[in-house]
Structures are given as structure tokens and as C-alpha cells.
Amino acid sequence: MGNGHDYRIPEPTVAVQPCPLCAKDKWHALTSLANLRNDGRSANQFSNRHPGYTGSLWIMLARDYLRRIWEGKEDASELAARILCGEFARSESSTSVEKGIMAGIEKPGASLPLPISIDWSHQEFVYRWQFGVQRDLYQLLLVSKRARKCERANCPTPFFVAKKLPRRYCGKACADEAVAETKEAYEASGNRPPRREKKNRKGRKGQRP
Ligand SMILES: [Zn+2]
Ligand SMILES: [Zn+2]
Hints:
Blueprint: H1 20-24, H2 28-34, H3 40-49, H4 59-70, H5 76-84, H6 87-102, E1 116-119, E2 124-127, H7 132-142, E3 147-149, E4 159-161, H8 172-189
Antiparallel strand pairs: 1-2, 3-4
Helix pairs in contact: 4-5
Bound molecules: zinc ion (2 copies).
């Protein structure tokens, strides 16, 4: 904008070593953030791997909002809008613009970066993300039904993006574990496990009493 005072949020620092897991799985950063454990070490590890990912938003707060969005809580849409519109960053920059105006450095009407731009000739809005979490959350919004939570109660990484629907578990390990747990529970209760678990066995037709 050529006014000499740049209030834009700084570009994320370029990672010296880009996260190798992100190269294999485009949801790696977003799911790791949602699954982040409640300790400082995990948070540090995450931000070393994905520098600048949450912009000016505190990592743990970003994680909590992301979880509510993922679970489709009543404020999911509102929280997603706040992250995608950079509401948190914008309120900070707006304060700094106001300070600039008060100090006489900045002219009133100094504009803040908008999260959208207009492509007039293609007749569309274009979303302009500034941090990785905005880019990925926008991608998740486009496939929001695939944002799933693993149904296994003690799953260590329950937030996942399903490749196909329906999906109840985050992966094979949890699905197998869940089958084993169900079987154990049936055995403990003295009942037989559900029949459908046996469906792949040969010669089932001839087994009728
Ligand atoms: Zn990654
Ligand atoms: Zn799981």
C-alpha cells in the first residue's frame, strides 16, 4: 500500500527443514495440532516442526478451537470464521494501526489486510490465508464431513480426516483394538461375540446345526 507502515502479519518463517510428514500427508499439521497433548514439550515440538503455523494465535488456544470445530460443537462455525478471518490477528493489528493514528504516524483510513479478495473477471471470492492453520482449516471446511473423531475411548490421536466415509476409527490399530475390546466385553458378559466377525471364515454355510 506504499504508506511505509506495514501492519501486515509477518509471513510464516520458512522452515529450514520442512516437516517430512506433511509432505506425505497434507493433513499432518492440522491433525497434529488437534491431537496435541497438554504439555509444553509437545507444543514446542509442534512449533519447531511447523513454524508460524498458528500465526499470532497461541498454539494451545488454536488447538482447543480446532477441537470444537472438529467435533461440530454449537460454536464450530463461529470459531472457524474467527480463525479463517484472522479475527485474533486483526484485532491486534487494528490496535497497532489505531496507535499509529494517535501518534500521528499513520493516516486515518489505513487499511488492514482482508482475508478475501475479489476476482472480478472470474466472478468469485478468493480466500487469502496468512498462516498454515488458516490454509488447512479452509481445506477442511471444503470436506468438513470427513473431519472425524475416533470412537475408541482411549485413542491417543482421535482427530483424523477420513479418506472415505463412513469411518469410525482413526486407523487399523484402533479398529482392531475396538473389535478385541467388544469381544472381551461379550466374553465377560457370558454372551457370544456378534456373528458378523466370523463372516470371512470358509465353510460357514455348512456349519448350521
Ligand atoms: Zn507436519
Ligand atoms: Zn483411534
